[in-house]
Amino acid sequence: MLGPVETRSVSPVFVGRTAELATLHDALARARAAEPQALLLGGEAGVGKTRLVEEFAAAATGRGAVVAVGGCVEIGADGLPFAPFSAALRALRDALPEEFAAAAAGQEEELARLLPDLGEAGAGRHDEQGMARLFELTARLLERMAAAHTVVLVLEDLHWADASTRHLLAYLLRTLRAGRLLVLASYRSDDIHRRHPLRPLLAELDRLRTVRRIELARFTREEAGRQIAGILAAEPDPAQVDEIYERSDGNAFFIEELAVAACQGNCTGLTDSLRDLLLVRVEALPESAQRVARIVAEGGSTVEYRLIAAVARLAEDDLIEALRVAVGANILTVTPAGDGYRFRHSLVREAVADDLLPGERSRLNRRYAEALETDPTLVPADARVMRLASYWYHAHDAAKALPAVLAAAVVARRRHAYTEQLGLLERAMELWDTAPAEVRATLRPVDYAEVFPPCGCDPATTPLRYLDLMAEAAVAGRFGGERERALKITKRALRLLEEEPDPLRAAWFWVQRSRLVQAQARGDGWPELATAQELVRGLPPSEVHAEVLAVVANWSMQHRPGPEALAAAERAVEYARMVGARETELHALLTLGGLTVESGDPDAGLAQMRQVLRDTLAEGVHPVAGRAYVNLPAALRSVGRDREAVPLLREGIEFCRRYGLLDSGAWAWGNLSEALYALGQWEEAAEAAAHATRVGHSAKPRAGGALRLAHLALARGDLAEAARQLATARSWYGTHDPRPQQSLPLARTAVGIAAAEGRIDDARALLLPLLDAGFPPGTHRYGWPLLLAAATAEADARTLPAARPGRAEILDRLRTAVRTLTTGVPLWQAYSRWARAELLRAEGQDTAATWSPVVSAFECLDRPYDLARVRHRLAGALLAEGGDDERDRAVELLRLAAAVAAHLQARPLAGSVARLAQRARLSLGGGKRPYPSADPAAALGLTSRERDVLGLVAAGRTNRQIAEELFISPKTASVHVSNILGKLGVSGRGEAAAVAHRLGLFVAGTLAAEPSG
Hints:
By secondary structure, the chain is mainly alpha-helical. The protein is 66% helix and 4% strand. A five-stranded parallel sheet has the order 2-5-6-1-7. Strands 8-10-9 form a three-stranded antiparallel sheet. The protein has a two-stranded antiparallel ribbon with strand order 3-4. α35 (699-715) packs antiparallel against α36. 53% of the residues are buried.
């Protein structure tokens, strides 16, 4: 190999870039203070991005940072999956071997998909979370590495990045929140046309406040002069500077090329063509050196010396001499590892490659492929299969390209590079008809396909079919997020299956289409599943049949729980056992357990779900275990066993984090939030819900976290935040796939917000469609909280004139729903009593005898907030009945409720308790002395006259009626009303009346209890 070669075409003086370097050094300082940083460096080709990165990297190294550089690799028109991350992680491991080993401990098999040096990547499971799991483990690896060292991760040439690299970078920049890490990525801005795949990523990253963009401008005339002086090692003639600057337009690389050309005396006659400028020095080389340059240009971004030798077929001395000349002319440069060559600037490589004739290009690719087939050790093992596929494809040899491309697709799948796998499979489908039949006949599903079950065929002897490729491509598209492409593939496949009927294969494609339709928000997926179910009806048991039944059962559990769903789950278990489809069996058993709990047999269902969790952990079926860690605690919560669910959820969250099950982890965080809310641990509940909104890969689990934050904000009286989080939850859930477990809790919170704002008509409008639809079996756990919220809203609005129209009908509808909804366990029995009591309160018919059994029911449950609310209700009823004993008991109930409200910061409940005590002139601090004066009207700044006017507004009076009653003019009454609206911060008389009612400013007759939040 060659040693260092002296060059004159790189300026020894680093020119300009003061502001850009300052930004980079500021980011480094922040990273050293454990504030992760992300920067995108853009600029046109040749503007000086690489030189700036090199200068910054040297300075960062001098300050003790570990710099790991990785560049996106281009092979012909193809990129290697995860190439920049693989190179950067390899550099990181070389720099800190012990720390890297400790950070990767236990996850080597999975991380080997990015860094094959760690060993053989595990077969693992391929699913929609596979790529996300790998991304999560990579992010955690970098966080651990950056815990003790400042790490600068440099990713160059993003414009060549494969889709998997782009996805990983986006995930990394979205989720990094800890560690002394700086991520710097560069790209050519002039290459990013409207349809360039990097463009959407840049737009997405622009929306992240944690990402800064640096756009590198061209040199000024003064900076160009300093660069030329550095290259020439002498002060240039001003006229020469003017000429070079005009021709280069300030582009650093072109300035350099023109300066060297002028120095060598061949600037005369140079055309203004960019291509000519880039090729002028290449064409000045001897023919042998030009030939080697053409070989290297077609080989990829970097080409190994031994591979060049095999392709060039020159005597070794001649080859070395040709390389020495090309390096001496600064056309080629030795790679940092010292084992190969690359063009000093990619612009020159592209110009040389573009200058190749079509036949010349395909011949060079054939030579590369033949050399690599003859000696696979010519390139690193992790790049061999991908490069061979690219070389044969661009050699236009279908017979050789088809198996090579299929082998590369298998490698991409193993690395969870599903988008690259899809692209390779699309190439294979393109080559299928042109490849000789005898070549196709040698291909076997066992080697290249895995997603479609054998169904009685031997994958080792059965020839590979075109439909096998379509099946692999459809799943790769779904896993890689290319769902639109996958949908088109399934549509084409089903058309082919109309010509050559195959019910099992067609059913399989319909199941895939159902999943894609749901993921693309095109529908709920049921028509597709129904078609699949009909296709397998009456067929002998098979893996496809079992999968169809299992998916149908799971869909039914989420959309239409009941006897039919239970029967489907039982059949799925039976069929899966018959054909030995263990994972499908475990999924179906878990679904069956959940449906058994919902059908009224919680002990049997919970026992079955616990067994599934034990089996999946023992057998290493991690995705099903992750689902069990979500569904089992949810089932426990559905029967009121929240305290038992909490440790299981914490265990599940750690399990999901360890194995990168992002969506399961997000669901678990959401369930934990709900359990902690019920148990009265609201601060921890808020933290858990926030985690759910951040860690989910898909939108729905994040929506669950937002909905829990909305309900918590409602209980604390922050209506604006509650409305904001509710809107976020709705947007993430979408409207295409309504499920009771989503629509009913959404409505519950929306009804609560509307009621708290005095919008009783809106609350009813939200409720009525759900009452019309009814509550299917198994949805009582979501139905009871909604019915309670609606009954409470009606009771709270009892004295509002605006609530009177339609009240009788809505109360009758609610009573009917309460009578028909399942109770089953003590929790929902308590909710039933509470809802019935609220309906009586809505008609002014509740008494202490109404509320006492409700309080007794909740005293047996571990739900402090619910208990505090019903104690407040009982206290109000006792005070309304009068008597010293009743007052004493009411004081104790209110004292207990106030303590809980204060601890939880439940302001609406705290306010209701305080106002009730104030009106009854009770002291909650002990004894029967008058409650300290705290007039809410005075607190709002209302004068005594405005208080009188507000009382009449709340009673439904018009301005003229107010004027007559208070002996003032209608105009004065109008002024008072306007002032009141402003002080209360409301927009209308109805809202003002609701506020007055909520604050307990006016009580007619007895001491009625108030809203408690």
